[in-house]
Amino acid sequence: MRWPPTHRRLSKRMTANRMLALVFVAASIVFLTVMVPELNQQQASMGGGFYSVRPSALPTFAGAMVLLFGVVMLFTDRPAPEEAGTFSAGIGLGLLQIGLFGAYALGLSLIGFLPASILFLAAVFLMYRAENWIVAITLTLGIPILVDALLRKVFLVPLPGASFF
Q1: Are the C-beta atoms of 126 and 142 separated by less than 8 Å?
Q2: Which of 39, 52, 67, 75 could join 28 via S-S bond, C-beta 3.0 to 4.6 A?
Q3: Residues with Cβ < 8 Å from 156, sequence gap 6 or more?
Q4: CB 21 within 8 A of CB 41
């Protein structure tokens, strides 16, 4: 390969997914090296012994997962199908997904974390037409219950709840 590589050679390797993965990797490195250590230095965030783990445990875990998935995305990028080449190919589902996120955020304060999360996942599986409904129902019920138990019991994070739940 000649150096410097031509635009044509780079464009075959540097896809939009890889560029997004690079942004995720860079942002998570900044988050893990700058923002998380600063969290431990703030006395107000210590919680006065409220936490069962140190207050930076959850942000460290989240940042590490974003870094891991960014690296995986960077090295496992596949070429997009031909029909996805136009901008309007997925705009409808994208706008629907944005509306769904808005409804989920509103539902968190109105009906609480657990029912809002179950309804959100059910809507996502309906929207993307899950192939195996047994797996979809299991995930729709299991993930919110598992996350609720993990956040409430292990990390002692108070999640939004409605008055009737």
Answers
A1: no
A2: 67
A3: 50, 51, 52
A4: no
> In this structure, are residues 122 and 104 in contact, taking their beta carbons and an 8 Å threshold?
no
Which amino acid, 133? W
- pTM (global) more than 0.70: no
Asked whether 89 and 65 are in contact (CB, 8 A), the reply is no
Per domain, the residue ranges of the chain are 7-79, 91-154
pLDDT in tens, the chain (165 residues): 455 545 454 445 677 778 888 999 999 999 889 887 777 666 555 555 555 566 677 788 888 999 999 999 888 866 655 555 555 556 777 788 889 999 999 998 889 999 999 999 999 999 888 889 999 999 999 999 999 998 888 877 787 776 554
**DSSP annotation of 86:** S
Take residue 122 and report the two structure tokens written for it: 């059910």
Torsion of CA 108, 112, 118, 121, to 10 degrees: 10
Contact 83, 136 (CB under 8 A): no
